[in-house]
Amino acid sequence: MSDVLDTFWAAIAEQLQELRTAKNADDVLSTLASGHGLDRGFFAGSGGDDTVSDALYAAGWELVWAESSIYYTMRAPDGSMITYIEGDIYRGDRHGNCPGQTGRPAN
Q1: Which whole-number Å values give the CA distances from 83 to 1, 2, 15, 78, 101, in the listed order?
Q2: Are 88 and 100 in contact (CB under 8 A)?
Q3: Cα–Cα distance for residue pair 24/19, rounded to 1 Å
Q4: 79 dihedral zone (left: phi>0; alpha: psi -120 to 50; beta)
Q5: How far is Cα 2 from Cα 48, in angstroms, rounded to an integer?
Q6: What is the rounded average pLDDT of the residues 87-97?
Q7: What is the pLDDT of residue 101?
Q8: Could you read off the pLDDT of 77-89 as tens digits, one per residue?
Q9: pLDDT for 7-56, tens place per residue?
Q10: Alpha-carbon gap, residue 42 to 18, rounded angstroms
Q11: What does the alpha-carbon distance between residue 9 and residue 45 come to, in Å, rounded to a whole number?
């Protein structure tokens, strides 16, 4: 069991390392691809010590909006955005509680 957990957390650490250099939403979504299309990803390491937001801050991203540490929108250095909802990542600003809708500009 320990080998499985070690492998899992090693994969999460690798994803976080890649996110620390993410310059746009495409980089984030390709790193966290979930098999649900190009506009959606998933981060399975939400229970760990490091977070997606910390990794993206290191890459120069900024917080656009947040309701909590598990529901927020961030903007990349190139202006593209992602919304994080409990591990699910969506392209764009989707903080209107409707992840299926087209992203809208932040206020």
Answers
A1: 33, 32, 17, 15, 12
A2: no
A3: 10
A4: left
A5: 16
A6: 88
A7: 46
A8: 999 999 999 999 9
A9: 999 999 999 999 999 999 999 999 999 877 788 999 999 888 899 999 99
A10: 14
A11: 7
